[in-house]
């Protein structure tokens, strides 16, 4: 994880106190490289896992940095100096770099400009104190490093978390603290905090038929992988789950001659490990590292960070991509991964507003929100849970407000679903995983590429939905990837282009009684979650002022009881959030605001 803290504080004593507190706290998180700079009235702390993940530049009239990697308009990697030059212009609409990064420039006139990747998946939060001090941080908990900042619970932020397992309308759990929206730069000048929309890329090519859509997607995909590659052709790691996204990515990397080492989460017998090994054999990859399940201490430490530092901005569903502590020092500086590919090239986001039941005509914002709400509690349940009826009414109002703003002018239903899915569900569920991965190695994210994004958005659902286009694209890159059985985290396994199933694997799985990896890691009886549940129980009473405690017990049974469910992944997200919220309230003891 890169940790960014930016402070505009005219009072030197307060500025020094805040930046030193942030630096000390960053070092406790195990970040290998923590840097401070002070250019009154600004100060900053930047923490990254390796020197390769940071570019800094200080001159007489400007100061700038990039954590991660950003591409300029010529598709070359920015340095901190070239970013400063690009953002030093007086152009009213600055260019939005591609890549996965957080960058900041202090201009010679004292104006601060900071921004993140085009999807807004790198988290950046900001607030202004009554004194005029501006605080910016990638982890909202670090805002408390300034002695003048006191967190106050924001009811809208809490309700959004419990409805959708993330933020709604960019409002965090803390009053006055908001997340920077996608495709937006944050500017601080004499007027205070200003938000600037960035310039969109050139319009995507017009595709007249499926073949053109496939050819353009193939060309832009290959270009994205090539241009996002770190300079110097150094050896890199790549997460390989054995699924279609990671197969497509690693096959492209091999085709382009990159020295890549696959990493797979799982244990012997897991589908992910078996399928990944087949991928490695077909691509002649001999160096394949298996990352065992995280230990109990890994779970509890990650949960505490999520509550204390990350401010629960992405919910409390940890475990799936949690790198075991025993493996963290073995990672290379850069890590390719296929997160968000199913949304961008797999068509998953295009169909998110469509009702899968052919007998139902409901589509659009209602269907979109219904799917998001699977990771939380309905407004009707929240009305039962909240002690104050006004909070229940606010949950209903917030749900309706989200549904009503779903439609985007000039976009079709599927195009609007694509945009809304990436800026909401994908941004938190998957974007937060990118950020936590960056604690140990910098994630290379080829779909954070605006040309590819705008092309994918324009492709009709009939061509891109249900992975039709992606499947044909994989066949063009490496047909052998389509002969390996596919998994969707459920008991359905089949090769993409063969009629046979994988009976031997299914037989061994049934005989061993071994649960699917995601079911195992998110089960409330997992040792890691058992330790978290026991710790959270001590904070249950912190919810007493907000929740009906007898109703709460239905959805959060008292330890050691666990809720009954067939699958713990999405259905228990709200349960995990209640535990995390109790710990957050108990430790921070904020007052409550309307």
How does this structure look, described?
- The C terminus is likely disordered.
- With 594 residues, the protein is α+β, with helices and mostly antiparallel strands.
- It contains 22 helices and 21 strands.
- A 6-stranded antiparallel beta sheet has the order 2-3-1-9-8-11, covered by helices on one side.
- Helix 4 runs antiparallel to helix 15, helix 4 packs across helix 17 and helix 9 packs across helix 11.
- It has 3 domains: 195 residues, Glutamine Phosphoribosylpyrophosphate, subunit 1, domain 1, CATH 3.60.20; 217 residues, HUPs (Rossmann fold, 3-Layer(aba) Sandwich), CATH 3.40.50.620; 43 residues.
Proportion of helical residues = 25-40%
CATH evolutionary superfamily of the largest domain: HUPs
Number of helices: 22
β-strand number: 21
Can you tell me the CATH class of the largest domain?
Answer: Alpha Beta
Q: Mean pLDDT, rounded to whole units?
A: 91
Q: Indicate the CATH topology of the largest domain.
A: Rossmann fold
Low-confidence stretches: 488-494, 497-502, 590-594
Largest sheet: 6 strands, antiparallel
Features:
594 residues, 38% helix, 6-stranded antiparallel β-sheet, 3 domains, 22 helices, 16% strand, Rossmann fold, Glutamine Phosphoribosylpyrophosphate, subunit 1, domain 1, disordered C terminus, alpha+beta
Topology at a glance:
Layout: E1 3-8, H1 12-28, E2 33-39, E3 42-48, E4 54-58, E5 63-68, H2 80-87, E6 101-106, E7 112-116, E8 125-128, E9 134-137, E10 152-154, H3 155-164, E11 178-179, E12 184-189, E13 192-197, H4 210-228, E14 236-239, H5 244-255, E15 260-265, H6 271-283, E16 289-291, H7 296-308, E17 334-336, H8 341-344, H9 365-372, H10 379-385, H11 389-404, H12 413-423, H13 425-429, H14 431-437, E18 442-444, H15 450-458, H16 461-464, H17 468-477, E19 485-487, E20 493-495, H18 503-512, H19 517-522, H20 527-537, H21 549-555, H22 573-588, E21 591-593
